[in-house]
Amino acid sequence: MKRLYWLIPAALLLTACDRKSAPDAFTPEMASFSNEFEFDPLRGPVKDFSQTLLDEHDVVVKKVSAQLSREGCFDLLTLEDVENKTGATLLLDANYYVDGRHPREAAAPAGQVSAGGDACRRGELGDG
């Protein structure tokens, strides 16, 4: 009978060691950008990362690197698709991502026409 009293606490102690906490979730931006630009998303608090995709002959196909804020927002995202000879650098500017490779002059206020003739229009949600 005494063995039974020792067996129950020992079993409870061992089951507590087996519990694993749930993995950190992906931030919404990490999930969205990884899906859009085809890189592996990372969980938890990430400061920066770099990923390189190789083909079966160990030739670089794609490169992705990014810097993230404490809140999990992408401050800078650089993509290079070697296979298709394309690339982009997205830079967070206030609430918008701008082209980091070819910065434009400051945009004219909404509805105004800039010197280049581009009309700047925004929708109700600030898009467009």
What does this structure look like?
The protein is of the alpha+beta class. The chain has a domain at 22-99. It has two helices and five strands. It has helices spanning 2-18, 28-37; strands at 48-54, 60-68, 74-81, 86-93, 96-99. Strands 1-2-3-4-5 form a five-stranded antiparallel beta sheet, with helices on one face. The longest helix has 17 residues, at 2-18. Residues 105-128 have low confidence and may be disordered.
Descriptive keywords:
128 residues, alpha+beta, five-stranded antiparallel sheet, 2 helices, disordered C terminus
Low-confidence stretches: 105-128
Report the major sheet.
5 strands, antiparallel
Mean pLDDT: 77
Overall geometric form: elongated
Produce a short descriptive summary.
The protein is α+β, with helices and mostly antiparallel strands and 128 residues long. It has helices at residues 2-18, 28-37, and strands at 48-54, 60-68, 74-81, 86-93, 96-99. It has a five-stranded antiparallel beta sheet with strand order 1-2-3-4-5, with helices on one face.
List the helices and strands and how they pair.
Blueprint: H1 2-18, H2 28-37, E1 48-54, E2 60-68, E3 74-81, E4 86-93, E5 96-99
Antiparallel strand pairs: 1-2, 2-3, 3-4, 4-5
Region (Disordered): 107-128
Organism: Klebsiella pneumoniae
Protein name: Lipoprotein ynfC
